């Protein structure tokens, strides 16, 4: 059974494992010392560390000692999470309890193990400086933490700020070589002129639909870097990766999935399971276009517009293809006549008055009526949640 500290086996005590905005980096020896002090075996611990540094020390301390580690369970509706004596007796290893992102609904608790979390990790691959832009307490953030540890690299944790220039400056100053983020976060970073100065060897996308425009922009910015799009979820773990720089995924993956994973499309949504386990409906709707499946959006996010079921992400993809638009978000507004109306918020730096009307005209000329937004609003920025995803909800 692999424990969190086992990922550091063979590394020198003076090796750096994390750099943040503190004056001193965290070394392997400091992490080992902090994590191996004597502790009683607790039943369940909720880790609410405010920084990635505190979190890493807490997780290394608790893994293998606590029956349950609950990652930042605060703010989750419902009864407190309680571990029973029966569950303690059955526990063969520490259970890790994560929250789903709650992008289109209330966050849910998902119980897993460190072994399952490591399924998509490639030990010894990608030694370098891994930028952590996700919240450490989410599945995507944990994947970055674990991959950095398992590869022999170290974490770079930029300041917690919405100012992209400050994050890019930190990553540049500390020579970030591997970066993982959502397409929404990358669109922000691509707007920073110095972003292309990072010495990136690998650019990884996940958490949202990766449209061709953002994939192509990243390839232009980092032509020698590996471009990897990971499909994963808190419930199902890492399902597969796409490395050809194209949006969607090859239909052939259904017949030849990665080792240890089964894939299927049932009633229009992607289903995933660890081989021999239970199927998980990801709720991600896909459409077969030629020899490739394209992501449409989350089934739970479908909006009824005049009797037509609409995926807001489909309109977002069209908006992002328009010259001048760097970010886009589509939300629904209740309508007594049509059920819902679509409202589009777009970020278009440098565009002047009337650009919203030009975008609306482009929508009317190219899209079916039910996909045309009732309003296009020019905004300075779009909000993202702790997982780096667009914050979705009803429009005001």
Keywords for this structure?
eight-stranded mixed beta sheet, 2 domains, GMP Synthetase, Chain A, domain 3, 22 strands, globular, alpha/beta, 10 helices, Rossmann fold, 396 residues, five-stranded antiparallel beta sheet
Structural write-up:
The protein is α/β, with parallel strands linked by helices. It folds into 2 domains: 290 residues, ANL, N-terminal domain (Rossmann fold, 3-Layer(aba) Sandwich); 77 residues, GMP Synthetase, Chain A, domain 3. Helices cover 23% and strands 28% of the residues. The strands form 5 sheets. An 8-stranded mixed β-sheet has the order 2-1-8-7-9-10-11-12, with helices on both faces. A 5-stranded antiparallel β-sheet has the order 13-17-16-15-14, covered by helices on one side. A 4-stranded mixed β-sheet has the order 3-4-5-6. Helix 1 crosses helix 2 and helix 7 packs across helix 8. The relative contact order is 0.09. About 4% of the residues have low confidence.
Task: Describe the SSE topology.
Layout: E1 16-19, E2 26-27, H1 28-35, E3 44-47, H2 52-62, E4 68-71, H3 85-90, E5 95-99, E6 109-113, H4 114-117, E7 129-132, H5 139-151, E8 154-156, H6 164-173, E9 178-181, H7 183-190, E10 202-205, H8 212-221, E11 226-233, E12 237-242, E13 249-250, E14 261-266, E15 269-274, E16 280-289, E17 292-298, E18 303-305, E19 308-310, H9 312-320, E20 327-335, E21 339-347, H10 355-366, E22 375-378
Helix pairs in contact: 1-2, 7-8
């Amino acid at each position: 059974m692999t424990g969190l500290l086992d990922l550091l086996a063979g590394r020198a005590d003076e090796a750096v494992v994390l750099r943040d905005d503190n004056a001193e980096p965290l070394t392997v020896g400091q992490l080992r010392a902090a994590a191996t002090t004597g502790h009683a075996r607790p039943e369940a611990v909720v880790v609410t560390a405010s920084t990635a540094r505190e979190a890493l020390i807490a997780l290394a301390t608790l893994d293998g000692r606590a029956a349950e580690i609950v990652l930042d369970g605060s703010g989750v509706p419902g009864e407190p999470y309680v571990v029973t004596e029966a569950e303690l007796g059955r526990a063969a290893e520490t259970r890790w309890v994560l929250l789903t992102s709650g992008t289109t609904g209330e966050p849910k608790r998902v119980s897993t193990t460190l072994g399952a979390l490591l399924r998509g990790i490639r030990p010894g691959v990608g030694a370098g400086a891994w930028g952590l832009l996700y919240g450490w307490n989410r599945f995507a953030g944990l994947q970055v933490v674990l991959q950095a540890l398992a590869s022999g690299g170290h974490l770079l944790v930029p300041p917690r700020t919405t100012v992209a220039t400050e994050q890019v400056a930190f990553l540049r100053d500390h020579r970030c070589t591997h970066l993982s983020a959502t397409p929404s976060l990358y669109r922000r970073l691509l707007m920073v002129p110095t972003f292309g100065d990072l010495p990136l060897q690998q650019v990884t996308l996940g958490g949202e639909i990766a449209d061709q425009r953002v994939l192509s922009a990243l390839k232009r910015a980092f032509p020698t870097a590996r471009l990897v799009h990971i499909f994963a979820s808190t419930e199902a773990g890492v399902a597969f990766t796409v490395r050809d720089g194209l949006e969607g995924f090859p239909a052939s993956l259904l017949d030849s999935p990665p080792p240890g994973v089964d894939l299927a499309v049932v009633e229009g949504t992607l289903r995933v399971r660890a081989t021999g386990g239970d199927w998980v409906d990801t709720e991600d709707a896909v459409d077969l276009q030629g020899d490739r499946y394209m992501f449409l959006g989350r089934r739970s996010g479908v909006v009824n517009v005049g009797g037509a079921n609409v995926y807001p992400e489909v309109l977002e993809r069209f908006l992002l293809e328009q010259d001048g638009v760097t970010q886009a978000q589509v939300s629904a507004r209740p309508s007594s006549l049509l059920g819902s109306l679509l409202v589009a918020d777009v970020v278009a730096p440098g565009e002047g008055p009337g650009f919203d009307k030009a975008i609306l005209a482009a929508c009317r000329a190219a899209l079916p009526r039910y996909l045309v937004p009732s309003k296009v609003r020019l905004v300075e920025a779009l909000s993202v949640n702790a997982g780096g995803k667009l914050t979705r909800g009803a429009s005001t």
